[in-house]
């Protein structure tokens, strides 16, 4: 066992060394909040694409979602659909968000909300709630590191120790290098689990089942219900897909991705690459997990099953490689969330409460907050938190309530502050009540609280748009987007 652990640990340490070298080469000294938060809007399309892929596709796909694929079947594949769908929405809003960010010096999602609706108070509330709705993903990914390290090292490194070591590495390069270091790490990590990961997992599918078609034949014979949407039903599944699609579009990290590109065309080019990567990553790994319940020695803790099957058919080298793939996904997501969250708290929350603070002061706050938020995530992740995956889905139901305020506000001049603020509040209320007390929305016929909330949210915005006078101040914003002439570059990174 010790020799097997030594092989897998060696693989992982070698990968960490590669990460450190690339991050060092591509890194730059951080001297301003704009550099720290959005890399001075200088990223080429390839760096932006893999940084986005790295930040978007999470390590939980190798632990929690992999376990779900084995236990509840194809229902878990909603992650593939919503991940790809969100990217297409991002394609259409890339230009207005990027242009407004460039012209008005926007750094956060909250900056866009304040610019569009002219209210610092709404910006503060919006940013605070959006961060709280997003934060479970930071905890999930930090927890996943513990599962991954423990499983990939044959339990020679414990859950908490592995979690702390890897998280400290990520916190360190985010503190020192900001958005550029996070993107450089995402480039290495995204390439790893996109190219190496897909090939390695497909090799496992062939070794385990004989091929993709043989796997589906096995599942149909063993437990055909895994190929259906199960007891939760099609409407709930559709609700999850829709709310996660729209909610994924309005995560704060998405706006950081757009702002840091050197042009809106760079964003669009990166978005065209990401869906293909998403389909390949998600479909292969979840397909591998789909038929594992047919094995008599399937582990009691399904979250470790990706490493169990890797060791069973590929030995310690494949266990080490699976550990690298999962850690790559975890690290890239954590770095993206950590960098965006620290800037969000500094700029939108501290900056709103202390408006006299300069950007230089907020930059210092953001760097300190990188460490503070990272340590807090580690402390929470070491606790026993049941149903964290359910919590994340509930938070997506709440996050989606941001979508009407942002998307409608970008493309419709009549959207106003009373409509978006009341709509956002009512939508969040329905989301929380519908998830905590499902019987209260039984009249919705199986649709989730988030879906009910977002529909009512949109209705409120439309009604208020026609009952209140339009804001003529927004004409300048729309004209800016319409008339702005971009200078496009061919830069890759």
Fold and architecture overview:
The protein is mainly α. The chain has 2 domains: 9-26 and 33-386, Sodium/glucose cotransporter (Up-down Bundle); 401-483, no CATH class. It has 19 helices and no strands. It has helices at residues 2-26, 33-38, 45-56, 64-71, 78-104, 109-117, 120-152, 159-209, 212-223, 233-249, 252-260, 264-290, 305-353, 359-381, 388-399, 402-411, 417-436, 449-467, 474-483. Helix 1 packs parallel to helix 13, helix 3 crosses helix 13 and helix 4 crosses helix 12 (264-290).
Compile the SSE list and pairings.
Layout (H helix, E strand, L loop, with lengths): L1 H25 L6 H6 L6 H12 L7 H8 L6 H27 L4 H9 L2 H33 L6 H51 L2 H12 L9 H17 L2 H9 L3 H27 L14 H49 L5 H23 L6 H12 L2 H10 L5 H20 L12 H19 L6 H10 L10
